[in-house]
Amino acid sequence: MGRLLYRPAMHDTVVKIRKKIQRETPGEDVAAIVSERLQEAGLSRALAEPISTHLELLYVGAFQWVRILLAAATEGATGEEQARAQAELLFSSRHLAVVLGDLVPFLERAEDILSEREEITHRESHYEREVAPFSRFDSTEDMRGFFLARGFSTDLAMEGAQGGADLMKIVYLQGRLAGEAPKAADLYALVAELVLDSRRHLLPMFTEGAPFLKQLETGIQAA
């Protein structure tokens, strides 16, 4: 397999997460810890437990999806390796659609509850600032290049790259949640970010019949 590129302009946090995904395996069995963190930040146990369980499934799925894409986007990846990666991305995308469909309603309920807290000011959270670099052009340029090389239109290649950015954010945020209990305002920002990314990018990408998913299928059939 070829060499994974880390461009000079790429933010340190993005490089760190990309290397983690490339070199490690997803850390599992953290749902109980994340549930504790969510409860410490003010969510009920009845809501924290299903969120943490589904979030762990999303984290593992996001880790695997991005890992497949990064491997296929490396310098020197063969056409056969890229075609196999496209088939794996299709399977992984359908899995993520199911996981997101289960998780998002719980996140939306949490968002509604947290938005009513007096200490929530709706100001920019440091979580929002931390994840912003993932969506920069240089953070996903190789992902976009992979999809263009596989015959995706410019719009669909950009959609795929943005999906990759959103999934890298999930890997990052899961690690942050497992490491420390966020304040209520930061938890609100985190939940709102996950809901927005899921509704605006990920579910429209991965839902059966979506143009991005259809193009993945078309490329596999043509191979």
Tags for this entry?
globular, 9 helices, mainly alpha, 223 residues
Radius of gyration: 17 Å
Derived structural class: mainly alpha
Determine the strand fraction and express it as a percent band.
under 5%
**Secondary-structure element order, N to C:** HHHHHHHHH
Shape: globular
Helix content: over 70%
Mean pLDDT over the full residue set: 87
- Domain count, please report it: 1
- Discrete helix count: 9
Main sheet summary: none
Question: What is the rounded distance between the termini?
Answer: 20 Å
Low-confidence stretches: none
- Number of extended strands: 0
Explain what the structure shows.
It is a single chain. The chain is an all-alpha fold. It has one domain. It has helices at 12-23, 31-40, 45-72, 79-115, 126-131, 137-149, 154-179, 184-206, 211-222. α2 (31-40) crosses α3 (45-72), α3 runs antiparallel to α4 (79-115) and α7 runs antiparallel to α8.
